[in-house]
Amino acid sequence: MPGSITWRKARPDDARFLERWDEDPDVIASNPNDVGRTDWRAEIERNDPFSEILIFEEDGRPVGVVCDIDPALEETHYWGDCESGLRALDIWIGEARDRGRGVGAQMMRLALARAFADPAVRAVIIDPLASNARAIRFYERIGFRPVERRRFGEDDCLVMRFDRPA
Ligand SMILES: CC(C)(COP(=O)(O)OP(=O)(O)OC[C@H]1O[C@@H](n2cnc3c(N)ncnc32)[C@H](O)[C@@H]1OP(=O)(O)O)[C@@H](O)C(=O)NCCC(=O)NCCS
């Protein structure tokens, strides 16, 4: 059982955690073409309302992050043209000792509740690498379903979707 999991918006000083987590082998493996290329302080200070960075803490200690974007409005247009009413999430836990003990499931439950608190949100989408079998199993267990295989730049991904519960 994990401790108490809470979230807050990232502050510029959180860049030190994000930079350290970018050196973790599993974080790198989950996104090898991007990890290490983000200037986290600048990203946090950019304060883009359509691209939020949430720090998750276990008993007050930062353990992971969720990036929550509106894919139709976010500046880089990573997802291309897409319908309104979606949120796209990225999730990672920074250190091996914090994985595999339920922290991620709790983070994702909180992130989904937060996304669906906006009545305009119809579904949440994610794009793990197709090779990231453990993460895909984790998402399936939470209730995401596979939608399509899609290439984002050099990344071969599996797009998955979680529709608003009826
Ligand atoms: C994916 C991730 C967020 C899941 O969070 P978690 O707290 O480890 O997951 P939980 O403890 O709630 O659930 C355990 C499941 O997560 C899976 N998992 C995925 N990657 C894992 C990892 N690197 N280490 C341990 N478990 C991992 C496990 O496979 C486990 O399922 P299993 O028992 O069937 O193998 C987390 O493991 C992580 O950050 N992994 C590295 C980065 C990553 O792959 N992010 C996803 C990018 S799409």
UniProtKB/TrEMBL annotation:
UniProt cross-references to CDD domains, sorted A to Z: NAT_SF (cd04301)
Protein species of origin: Amphiplicatus metriothermophilus
Listed name of the protein: Aminoglycoside 6'-N-acetyltransferase
Ranges in a coiled coil: none
Example of a GO MF term: acyltransferase activity, transferring groups other than amino-acyl groups
Pfam families in UniProt: Acetyltransf_8
Domain N-acetyltransferase: 5-165
InterPro entries linked: Acyl_CoA_acyltransferase (IPR016181), GNAT_dom (IPR000182)
Keyword terms of this UniProt record: Transferase
